[in-house]
Fold this sequence. Notes:
Elements: H1 22-34, H2 36-53, H3 56-71
Amino acid sequence: MGFIKSYIRNGYNGLFFEKQNPYHLARCIQKLISDEKSRKILGDNARKTIVEKFSWDKTAKGIEDALEGLTKK
C-alpha cells in the first residue's frame, strides 16, 4: 500500500480491506451503503485530511523545495 498508510487511517478517513479478498471489500462497501452516519464521518474526515495535508499551497511548496534542493547540489 506504500504511501496510502501515511494519510489514510482505517475507520477515521477511510476503510482498508484485505488484499485479493472481494468478500471483505464487499462488506466495507455494504457498511458505507447502510450506515449514513459512518459514511458522513468518514467523508468529512477524508476531506479534512486532504485540506490539511495536501493543499495546493503545500504541494507547490514541496515541489519548489525539491527543485531548489536539486539546484544547490
